[in-house]
Amino acid sequence: MDIHDLTRRLKEKSDSKIVLLVADGLGGLPMEPGGKTELETARHPHLDDLAAKGVLGLLHPVLPGITPGSGPGHLGIFGYDPLKYEIGRGALEATGIGFALTENDVAVRGNFCTLDADGNITDRRAGRIPTEKSGPLARRLNAIKIPGVKIFVEPVKEHRFVFVMRGEGLGGNVLDTDPQDTGVPPLAPKATDGESQRTAEIASAFIEQAREILKDELKANGLTLRGFAPKPKLPSYQEVYGLRAAAIAVYPMYKGLAHLVGMTILGSPQTLSEQVALLKESWEKYDFFFLHFKYTDSTGEDGNFEAKVKRIEELDAAIPGVTALAPSVLVVTADHSTPSKLKSHSWHPVPVLLASDTCRPDSCRTFTENAAIMGGLGQLEAKYLMLMALAHAGRLSKYGA
Fold it and tell me: Sign of the CA dihedral 342, 56, 257, 321?
């Protein structure tokens, strides 16, 4: 019996409300030995107040030692085993912008990048080119023609776009072309099985034609492709948890993941204050709310310790707007760690805070990684977090006689 078999049996109706607030990439590291992490450096009195009332712990997004992508990281905290349900980033991005994938599609997340005269990457994100400039560039790539397949290119946000190829017999097992480094050229698309060889060939042809279209651009004169993925199939929140679930996110990829698990996507907020306003506006219509805050991740990826500290403080300032609604359960956590020191996702467990009137008190009085080590939730795989949230919300019946 897996987790969802159990929750299908035990789920109960209730008027309780659950809020899951995900600070993307929240976990960090000290920049110097003996120093503090970004979370330990930031001032966050409202999160500390919740920590004193609730219970803390550490989550392993996938398994100890495994560095998760954003997809697996979120699937885990949504209660889906990320080793069972694999979703490529391309499918998340495509779904997030409302692109209706078919059974014959393979979707890919594209990044504009900057190449030097030798074809080596100097900036993996093209200077985080603004959306108003990247959008027209992405649409120009729809001029690319490849025999035997239909091509769709749609802008996402900043340097990101979605590339969808539609045709018969396309596999999704193609390796990313982003080398995750600068000073080297993009990698060639490489299939890992025979069914995906045609997909890799189409991707190579797409890249070649795109380079010609982009060659005169100062920043976005190249591209990389990540997360080749067919349309996924997942059971919904309503089916497995009995929840009317809603998502409030800024970035399309996270809207896409929420949509794939049956959440209703609310509005088009662009700021955290707009997200909290949407939460208040929609409070009576749903049982579960997923709020996503991106910028603790992007500042970490930029290696900007001070900026990540400020973003954590920005998040803390929004907490009273959430607690004023008196959710039955409020969970604050992350999908993965993104230490500024590493400028990338990492394998380190992420802190989690669960606040509810039914918490068993622990000794934690502040929301930090070090405090979370001593928390009453202990260390657990992220896929079990939803069980804890449902239990504290009174939404699970007794198991067995």
Answer: negative
Answer for the pair 26, 334: CB distance below 8 angstroms, yes or no. Answer: yes
First to last CA, the chain: 18
Rounded distance between C-alpha atoms, residue 219 and residue 115, angstroms:
8
* pTM for the full predicted model: 0.80
What is the distance between the alpha carbons of residues 6 and 235, in angstroms, rounded to a whole number?
Answer: 14
Written as tens digits, the pLDDT of the chain (401 aa) is 789 999 999 999 999 999 999 999 999 999 999 999 999 999 999 999 999 999 999 999 999 999 999 889 999 999 999 999 988 889 888 988 888 899 899 999 999 999 999 999 999 999 999 999 999 999 999 999 999 999 999 999 899 999 999 999 999 999 999 999 999 999 999 999 999 999 999 999 999 999 999 999 999 999 999 999 998 889 999 999 999 999 999 998 899 889 989 999 999 999 999 999 999 999 999 999 999 999 999 999 999 999 999 999 999 999 999 999 999 999 999 999 999 999 999 999 999 999 999 999 899 999 999 999 999 999 999 999 999 999 999 999 999 98
The Cα 204–Cα 163 span in angstroms is 13
Question: Going by DSSP bridges, is the β-strand pair 264-265/245-248 parallel, antiparallel, or unpaired?
Answer: parallel
Cα–Cα distance measured from residue 149 to residue 164, given in angstroms and rounded to the nearest whole number:
10
Residue in this structure with the two tokens 């976990």, named with its chain if needed: 27
By the 10 Å C-beta count (0-12 exposed, 13-18 middle, 19+ buried), 167 is classed as middle
